[in-house]
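ingest -> validate -> predict -> emit
validate: passed (alphabet ok, no gaps, 175 aa)
predict: started
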Amino acid sequence: MRETGAHRQRWAVETMAVAPDDRVLEIGCGRGAAVSLVADQLRTGRIIAVDRSATMVRLAVERNTSHIDAGRAEIRCAGFESADLSAHRFTKIFAVNVSLFWLGDATQDVNRVRSLLAPGGRFYVFGERPSAAHATANLTATELLLRAHGFATTRASVVRGKGRVLTCVSGTPSD
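emit:
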């Protein structure tokens, strides 16, 4: 049986321990699986999700129509760097398997995350790697990136089937 990416989103949402009143931003929502899982936990809170692919946004909207209609979810077609989010402060911001924070100079993106976090808010960077060695390298690089931008960090990982490792580095601004 072919394994889908749903296990990543489930683990991510469980790891974040979404509260009913959280204000959540997902960077790179894909088909909207995590949007649905987060919105299921919300009562007075809300999730905004962005993705640069119009196809993925359409699929995410179709999957989450009931959450959108209930006011718990909003899905926007935009890259993180260009999404109009200035009116919002989030208690949780997360990205699952989004290369934005691993490739090239992520300074502007990490600084943007910092500016969008509410006081005490937390940023989560989730990934899935093919081996423990790849996972360790990714965890270390992500942790160094966040620390270099003033985040106090924690890390987590779990081994899944066929040697694949799910990873998470999370952090809160230390000032």
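The beta strands are 23-27, 46-51, 73-77, 90-96, 117-129, 151-159, 165-173.
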